[in-house]
Amino acid sequence: MDQEAVPPHVLIFPLPLQGPVNSMLKLAELLCLSGLHITFLVTDHIHTRLVKYSNIQSRFNGYPGFRLETISDGLPEDHPRFGAVLMEMFDSLKIKTKILLKDLLTSGKLNSDSRRPVTCIIGDGIMGFTCDVANDVGLPIIYVRTISACCLWVFFCLPKLIESGEIPFTGNDLDTPIKSIPGMEGFFRRRDLPMFCRSGSLSDPNLNLYLPEATENSRAHGLILNTFDDLEGPILAHIRAFCPNLYTIGPLHSHLKYKLPGQSLSSSNSLWKEDMSCITWLDSQPPKSVLYVSFGSLAVMTKEQYMEFWHGLVDSGSRFLWVIRPDSVTSDPMDIPSELSKGTKERGYIVQWAPQEEVLAHRAVGGFLTHSGWNSTLESVIEGVPMICWPYFLDQQVNSRYVGEVWKLGLDMKDTCDRVIIEKTVRELMEYRKDEFWKSADEMAKYAKQCLMEGGSSYGNLERLVNDIKAM
Ligand code: UDP
């Protein structure tokens, strides 16, 4: 076959975590739709879960240009991977997977009669080894970061923060303003920085992982961000000084709704089994009456924190749908005092994993108590659902400050876990100030949707990305 007539072939390699896998699969689908050939590379661990719980195989049957390929993360099968040992996975990827990735690209295994050899790599900027491999084998690489631009900008400024002596610090004086991050003067405090800045140590492994972000991200041909210009425009201007070729194409998960209007797009990229019964329960609830509660795929809480949430939610009088992953509480999660479980029967519903995008789009949902993961935040933004933020780690402390203080899309409850405050905050969002929050959330949702439509910034940037890949 004339190789020139065959479409370009992109290898996409997401960070092996639920959030990045979810958004990169959406990107893969969009690129397939534009006629590109895609090899989607996942670790064996992610592959097992995707095949078991998502509908990836049936969904991508409609895309002959899509292939799923696996690679080892170098860890034993029974390694927990997440939680306290997350860093072990990063280390193993950097050392062991790097070698395997180079072998895979040079082995010819990804080529066939109907496919060109890989013409471009899209890799997560936090896995800098993908750029080393791309350089070794002579391929262009585009990075993607699946965190917010505001947090990425904080990462870019880490060297400056160290130089000015603003970090590291310990858990004290958390309301001290931060001065060395251009664009964040006046509202950004110590407590809004990623948690690792509070460790009091320059040798914190997380700090060292994110310290080279500015130099690392500028090594690639371009940088894809899952955000949109109307949301993070001023911060994007700062990032462009380091990475001029930015593709802001978010909210990534919603493009298909506009590209394929009228089609049912039940795309589940879940690594856990979705409990669809919660949709039936939501169907029987009044409009905007339910607070959806979920802390994503990685956050864990202590039994004490969990009990504070229980009391706070029950005492608030609000209806709620709560996702409690089996591994999310550091002791038996089903050990609920009987008076609490009785009290919530009619107005509380618990599942282990929910079809989140569908839940947030449901007319019964009026608020989201979230850990402020970036995917969850964007999924809430586009559906116009106001948020209560209880950030756990990484970009979440930054995101929650922006949600509360800059975008005015909800309330930031970071660094507290007290039943009285939880009750009060839920009442504020769902009752006393609901009109104010719905109005601002509605406005931002409109901007998000406009960005995705023809003529919108994310729509145009996605087209530019496809054209650039075709020209490589
Ligand atoms: N999610 C889901 N069902 C749930 C909880 C979460 O499908 O019950 C999805 C959610 O839609 C999002 C992802 O898991 O796409 C979580 O990503 P996020 O960046 O918000 O947080 P992380 O899990 O990385 O901390």
Automatic annotation (TrEMBL):
Keywords: Glycosyltransferase, Transferase
EC number: 2.4.1.-
A GO term for molecular function: 7-deoxyloganetic acid glucosyltransferase activity
Enzyme class (EC, first level): transferase
Catalytic function, reaction form: 7-deoxyloganetate + UDP-alpha-D-glucose = 7-deoxyloganate + UDP + H(+)
Superkingdom per UniProt: Eukaryota
InterPro entries: UDP_glucos_trans, UDP_glycos_trans_CS
Record PROSITE patterns: UDPGT
Family, per entry: Belongs to the UDP-glycosyltransferase family.
Name this polypeptide is given: Glycosyltransferase
Species of origin: Mikania micrantha (bitter vine)
